[in-house]
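Page 37, continued from 36.
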């Protein structure tokens, strides 16, 4: 335990202890390519490497893999995605950004180029018809455009077209077609950094995180599925960094280790869709190994007072997010019911260990959509 006490806690500590190399999201790569392309459009020169600022302030540099300039008309820059030690299907993909001058006052207008999908169904964090460039990458790109515009006295009114070489083919290995994102990949990421979850080393890092928290005398830890849920757990409970467990998809790893090495209080925080899988009894929340069961959600909605038309709508929903939105609009507490069921699954794994569990479900924006208060043996 003394060795664990000397280690760092939280996400950074887990990544360091895992020995794994982090990578960059498609959103970070698209941002770097856009910044380089817009700079070249204004100055005639591509910065290489190009440095961007991520949402948490890190400033990585990206080498350019390709560049094209039609002076005064368009500029294209491309970055190869490096996913680090994560087995990401987009590792090695070429992310391109083509920037053109836009209409005065229009700001940044996004376009889906070849290999980037378009949203065709409701229930996603983007309207139908929009390029599948998620909200955080969009903001990162807007910030990079604004930075370049300020530096060179430009308006920042541009059309940004993001494309991915062979993206439509790669997307067949993802859930995009089932979600109604057609024509290619999504441009994703909330931190700009890919944390390598999918291996035994990351599970071991979760265990080391518990050890560090116990050695520091923490009586309350939070297992979070990602950076957004981590922020919510900190905001709600005021937890220090060494009480935060970046569990990713490995809810079972957190629960099984805490059963043997208990801490009095555990908060489980995560996206509604992932925690609906825990509610249904899945301990591995990765999309390749468990899916959101809309029929299960429909049954919970019925228990919560939904009429049969709403039950049918939940069963037919495109995503878990759409299901919870439908129920919230009708005053049915589906989020709370999922949180309570997830808590029950967790307590079942803990099997009477002296750990009280509460659950927080959030949407993609970090808004709490469901809570289950602490309950223990």
């Amino acid at each position: 335990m003394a060795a664990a006490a000397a280690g760092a806690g939280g996400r950074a500590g887990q990544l360091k202890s895992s020995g794994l190399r982090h990578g960059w999201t498609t959103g970070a790569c698209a941002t770097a390519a856009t910044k380089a392309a817009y700079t070249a459009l204004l100055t005639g020169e591509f910065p290489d490497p190009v440095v961007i600022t991520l949402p948490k302030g890190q400033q990585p540099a990206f080498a350019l893999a390709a560049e094209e300039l039609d002076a005064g008309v368009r500029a294209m820059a491309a970055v190869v995605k490096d996913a680090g030690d994560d087995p990401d299907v987009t590792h090695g993909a070429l992310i391109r950004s083509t920037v053109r001058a836009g209409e005065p006052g229009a700001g940044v207008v996004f376009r889906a180029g070849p290999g980037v999908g378009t949203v065709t169904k409701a229930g996603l964090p983007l309207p139908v018809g929009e390029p599948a460039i998620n909200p955080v990458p969009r903001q990162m790109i807007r910030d990079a455009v604004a930075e370049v515009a300020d530096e060179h006295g430009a308006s920042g009114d541009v059309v940004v077209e993001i494309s991915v070489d062979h993206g439509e083919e790669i997307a067949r290995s993802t859930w995009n077609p089932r979600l109604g994102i057609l024509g290619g990949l999504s441009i994703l990421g909330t931190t700009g950094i890919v944390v390598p979850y999918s291996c035994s080393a990351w599970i071991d890092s979760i265990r080391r995180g518990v050890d560090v928290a116990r050695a520091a005398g923490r009586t309350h830890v939070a297992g979070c599925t990602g950076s957004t849920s981590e922020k919510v757990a900190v905001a709600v409970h005021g937890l220090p960094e060494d009480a935060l467990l970046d569990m990713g998809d490995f809810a079972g790893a957190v629960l099984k280790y805490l059963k043997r090495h208990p801490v009095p209080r555990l908060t489980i925080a995560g996206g509604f869709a992932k925690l609906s899988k825990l509610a249904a009894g899945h301990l591995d929340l990765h999309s390749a190994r468990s899916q959101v069961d809309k029929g299960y959600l429909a049954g919970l909605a019925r228990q919560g007072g939904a009429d049969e038309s709403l039950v049918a709508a939940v069963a037919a929903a495109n995503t878990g997010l759409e299901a919870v939105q439908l129920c919230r609009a009708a005053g049915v507490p589906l989020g709370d019911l999922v949180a309570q069921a997830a808590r029950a699954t967790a307590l079942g794994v803990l099997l009477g260990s002296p750990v009280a569990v509460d659950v927080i479900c959030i949407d993609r924006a970090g808004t709490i959509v469901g809570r289950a208060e602490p309950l223990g043996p």
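Residues 26-43 form the longest helix (18 residues). Flag for discussion at group meeting. Confidence is low (pLDDT under 50) at residues 1-7.
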